[in-house]
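New to this. Explain the following:
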Amino acid sequence: MQHALTKVTRAEQAQALTVSTVAFTVCFAVWTIFAIIGVQIKADLGLNDTQFGLLVGTPILTGSLSRLLLGIWTDQYGGRIVYVAVMVAAAIATLLLTQAETYPMFLLAALGVGIAGGSFAVGIAYVSRWYPKEKQGTALGVFGMGNVGAAVTKFIAPFVMVAYGWQSVATVWAIALLVMAAVFWFATKDDPVLVERRRTGQKPQSTASMLEPLKNLQVWRFALYYFFVFGAFVALALWLPRYYVGAYGLDIKTAGMLGAAYSIPASVFRAFGGWLSDKIGARRVMYWTFIVSVACTFVLSYPATDYVVHGINGPIAFSFGIDVVTFTVIAFVLGFFMSLGKAAVYKHIPIYYPDAVGSVGGVVGLIGGLGGFVLPLAFGIMNDLLQVWTSCFMLLFGIVAVALVWMHAAIVRTERRKFPELGRADVVPELAEGVKRPSARPSGGGAAGLPRPAVGKPS
């Protein structure tokens, strides 16, 4: 790969990254379209919260399950053609959505719309091939800013829906995808690795060899981290407009704007997370992400409660509750640190598994995306069963607490082995070229944020 990059100019790198990021933004806006139009569909069909959670989560299911296959195809056939195919297919499905009338028809159409979410695995593999290892964290962080498409939907879709109906939202978003597909095709080139492979006549890796790294427990641990930092982000991006409407009684336009206050930091700061991972190490970034997320979700999970204390001179009553302003501020902080964590997780993949970015990145994105499907459904079920609005944050608190404990346990286990440089929190291969590595290395799993050669079976 490094040889293929010798003739790549900075202008070509910038063009590939810019167009890919804009395309991902449009795809993400379509992928989360039900966060807004789903509220109107819920009212039209008289759905309960469980049915609503399934509706908004269904596109996430397709987008997640398709990522592994799309990532492999990108490695084999190149990101340019796969990216365009994904956008065209998603645009067609979004147009067909306007013809749905019953709940089963909406679910079927939502499966097709979800193809747009598979663009992430394509973009990660495509963009990473344009940059050397020491710059991939920043580049992939910038690409990940395309998550801001969720905020674009929340800002614009409510006004279009109120003025012209939810069908107009679907039509406009589909046209935007088709336009973006054309722009991408004419404004980008095949990646340098694919060009070099064609020049030398080298055959692409087989699917079986690309799937080989998935035997490593380390890959699945990264996937769990991504289940929270990305899956929970998508789930909240879909759920917050409904939460604001139900918990605080806001109208859909205001709810969409406030939901965007969460989606924006959870997207645009991903580039900063990638840069930070390059500079201080992804392990440290992951620690901060999980610690702050534990604190935020704990506070948000506490329901509004009335207390009565039996005082000396009689009962003393007081209440605890989070007002809408405080809630929005805490959600902003949560989104910010989740954006850092998303970049930190993907910092490792091209370093650990440079020849299987598509498959490894695909499975990590798959599991993370499944969080965006499973969690909204779980939120709806918990609302219907517990009848407590903050139950969604109770669930998120449990998930991030488990992720933090597992990550720390892996780090402690690694540092107890005789591999000195793994004891440093800021080590990444490109910053440790001068370190003389011991001939032996641990057979167990590396800690999050501590990249090592993609050989063997790290746990």
About this structure: Confidence is low (pLDDT under 50) at residues 427-459. The longest strand covers residues 305-311. Residues 13-427 form a domain with the Growth Hormone; Chain: A; fold (CATH 1.20.1250.20). The beta strands are 305-311, 314-320.
